């Protein structure tokens, strides 16, 4: 018997909300709140008569802490699920603290305006000290650990697929499969085809920032940074086939380096087609990925926001996207004194997702873990004061829930390793 306030009503939120409505005995009430209330109203209308969960809707600008506080005080939820954008992580965490409510999200905080001098000074110091230059990192949200602990509240960070499920796979490998983990390779393959020359599978701003940033990986206790897309490998993915994949910086490496400190190397690879990369390079070269406003015919325009307006809405890709995703982790290490390799992954079919919830697989593989993370918190399986990433929590009930609600795991005891 719980009430959840969901903030954001885009591609990921739509899946998370529909999955919550499949578990109405836990998610008895949902309040859907977003910047554009009509999207919440449309989804509530679609779900009416198909779920026992009671749904209400509200308008909120989640950049404004006072608006959030007023909404939380009015709705009195047990949990706030942030499936808006990473830009709103800190304002929503502040509002949760002010109102004494638990919090969760699916992505690291990053600022909307990376030219803000105050943010930039901290960022540049962190780049030097930590050794990687991605705009997003955990430091901002880890700084809330004591505040949440003192308030007796829990904040769950990054509970999508990657970050999220991939960290649960690592926690599971450490708990059950290995005495010592030597290396971890996280592989994110999207074998889906939407038929457009160029489109992003989730929020274009967040996606293009991530992909155009320098890559980095963790080795022997420190970060190694490389130019964007400069390490390429080919890999044969189960049920997808042969794909090119590229080494990226990814947020879960930062937390895994702490929870599995014995790991000598942790890398993250994502697959991209040539058309995507060619378009991205070209857009970057002409300045279209910039977040710095430019003056155009008397208007201030942020190039990447203008580009977002031109690109297909990720939420509209559902009916067109065919093929499968395959995301998982390959481990090397030892068990009972013997060398061991082990691969755990999930395969998800875009069209099956579309037929179930009207979305493509990338929204599905993020929205289902968000619902399962909320389920863990609301049923007390994950409930301790402080700020946590998924790798710090018991993976067993979470992976069982994923198996049950649409993202079952597959295991390969003898995987081909990534060179
Ligand atoms: P979308 O752009 O589709 O949706 C974002 C939603 O947030 C929209 O409804 C938008 O409202 C709303 N929003 C934006 N700004 C505000 C604001 N100031 N106040 C209130 N609402 C706001 O994004 P996605 O659904 O693709 O992504 C959601 C989150 O999931 C992102 O943080 C993304 O990084 C994360 N993600 C995580 C993954 C993982 O595996 N961990 C994978 C993919 C995504 P409006 O309709 O008005 O624009």
UniProtKB/TrEMBL annotation:
Output this protein's name: Saccharopine dehydrogenase family protein
**Where does the UniProt annotation place the signal sequence?**
none
Query: What domain of life is recorded for the organism?
Result: Bacteria
The Saccharopine dehydrogenase-like C-terminal domain is annotated at 160-407
Question: What residue stretches are annotated with the Saccharopine dehydrogenase NADP binding domain?
Answer: 4-156
Q: Which PANTHER family match?
A: CARBOXYNORSPERMIDINE SYNTHASE
